[in-house]
Amino acid sequence: MSQDIFYKILNDHRELSSLPQVMVEVLKISSDADSSASDLAAIIMKDPTLTAKMLRVVNSPYYGRIQKITTVNQAVVTLGQRTVAAIALSTSVYNAVNKVDSSIDRKRFWRHSMEVAIAARMIAESIEFGPSEEAFVAGLLHEIGTLVLEASFPGDFKRVWRLIEAGENQAALEERTWGTNHARVGQFLLEQWGVPKVLGDAVGNHHQIYNHGDRSPENMLAQIVNLANQISKFRVYNMPPPESNQLENKDIIASNLGLTNSALAKIEENLISEVIKESGFLEMEIGSLDEILCEANHLLYRQYLTVENLLRENRVMQQQIARDQMKKAALESLKAIAATFSHYINNATAAILGRAQLLELGINRGDITDPKGIAALSSRTIVEGVETISTILEELKKMTTFETTLYHDDTYIIDVETKIRKQLDDLANVKISVGA
User: Does domain 3-287 have CATH number 1.10.3210.10?
Assistant: First the structure.
């Protein structure tokens, strides 16, 4: 997609073109190492709605405060500047984005976004990547480009979304339609807001395929959000089971981050309960507990079906392996039988040929009288018969030298049969007339 179309998106949605001035100042202060808690508190207090929200959050059961906090300055000191900035940015973005018209289920959208945000923070904390609040914010914002695309291209989006829900890859389909994808659109939007570049890069690369061993510091946050998105269970749409390259990418990123399987499993185990808890104190509407549990049960059922199908495929594979092993065993037996039969038949045919040659030699030397040529004809017939037997043995040897009988196609078998039948027919057509 050209830069002109990016600007078209922003021109169509002026409400998204910039963050409120208070949020711009919050971002500036929170990234300034020399700023103080009172500096941040002074900016937040410029916005009465944000001030009230901050005090509700810090006094929520989530933080387990015994003594009530009544000032923003106390809140900043209690939670820390980065946490306060993350909460403030989350609140501002949540309010701004919800003003955009969309047919996408907003509860499912924010449920997925919250799950990725929390997963990203938990991953960051597990690998001691700091600050973990940056991972939370990047995770929360990672899908914002989807809403922007829908609002800007409602007709095309409706068609694309149907294909996505039918199982097509979202990013690939968006690339074919608009020349970009929701991740890049979201990254561009964050650039306009003045959000730190590391956050925008994480949003823009949350579908990126990474190389094994990529531990560069500039890619760490992006890989954290990428992995958090992959382990997310609540989705904006019903996704098909992951493909092998996606599973491989998940393992590669976990390895790059130094995250063990047990640590990742622990994060996934606690994820849903954390989503329910934190969305409550951040006052984000992600659905009722019944709705969340209903979707969780649906996900569990889908996973059950996936496991059942895998077990079924495994059983079929095991049966096929057993059949192949039986064929291999039968072929080995056939090889042994052929070798044994060849040994005895070769001895017998050698003896027969020896007698036939003696007979022919006796006739030629005149030691045997054969006025009607019956003995000579019989000798030739015996030799041809033995040669036919030798041909059959030779073809049998060829067939048993293959690793598996599956290599013998119909054409090969027909050719062998034709060759042998011709020799047998020629042998049968030899007539020996015995005159008086």
Answer: yes
